Fold this protein.
Amino acid sequence: MDLHGAPVDPFGRLTARQRAGFTPNVVASCYNLSMLPEPPGRRPIILVAEGDAELRLAITTALSNQFPNIEIRSAPDGEAAWAVVRDGGVDLLLTDVSTPGLDGMQLLCRVRDDQRVAGTYVILMTAVTRPDELYAAMEHGGDDCVLKPVRWNELIARVHAGLRRLGTVRRQAERQAELEHLYHQHTEFLSMVSHEIRTPLSAILSAANVLMRYGSTRPESVERFAKVIHQEGRRLTRLINNHLDLAKIESGQVEWVFAPTAVDALVRDVEESFSALVGERNLVLEVDGWPDPVVVTLDRDKIIQVIVNLLSNSIKHSPDGAVVRLRYRPRPGGGVRLEVEDEGAGIPAGREEEIFGRFQQLGLDDQRRGSGLGLTISRQIVERHGGLIWAEPRRASGALFVVELPDVVRGGDGSV
């Protein structure tokens, strides 16, 4: 008997009813296919390559009955099967070793040689019984093997096992990709943190060195370089605090306190805290409230932090004498919409989403640079509230940040 199999009755002792539909049995009907994650936008696909038309129909019918959530396709020969596999999307290939034209072994080699489809799970069907011939078939890259005459419970079980293994491999690949992405983010984050910390530290050390060397002989320099130390020290403190805040939020270690909150009182507290800063810059902070009470369930301190971050950004980017506006309105169906608008240079087109990334800065001089984490933290806080935050695109001048918060009572961890 050769590797491609000798002529056999492919149906063995199956009855006419079994040939037509193969009534589901206890073993086959209990399979749970949730172990195979569906690729986005499509159902998993099994392709049956079999030259015997009657057997091909029987196999596809049996698989369709047992796996209703999977698309079952068929091909009468190896070339037709390769055309389907080559186009992509086939998850499991069930092929006879002796398919007409391009045989099953040649088809298997093509699959394994093409990197685009090399991960396809391949089950070979063959009539060979000698162990060395079976080993030879598997050494060509087959994942599993089914002997003819086909035992239908065994076929269903092996297909199910293949789908399960394929699901495991996919999940492992997705996890590996996720870990590599996290590692890249971690490395990039550490690089940016070290750079951001090094800058104020260098300024502090340089100013301190000048004071130690010339402070007694040049008293006029004391105030100047002491101011540098003070400014850079505050900047370094903000960077460290923001980094710790972000780390706590992302690790789920922040305690969230959600309670019904009067938005007008919250905004009034923020307005008072900025009165001195806007006075120093000769700016005007306009608050446009709502005539009726607006009460929303939220974490008061965290939302104040968001508004403070947005106002701080607007003030930093505003020219002296400009107006910064803070507005709030109730949302239809509950919740609140907050807006912070300034008269600065605005956000370059296409960067409206980018600025919410870590350490993103928009062309400020060193004296007014922040930590580059404020908007990142703000988005984390807003999303924990189930809300949205964004920068309005395509504005002629100035920046407009919008925060929309629903009115939903949440648990201590921010979950509904």
User: Anything to note?
Assistant: The first helix runs from residue 16 to 20. The chain has two domains: 1-253, 256-416. Confidence is low (pLDDT under 50) at residues 1-35, 364-370, 411-416.
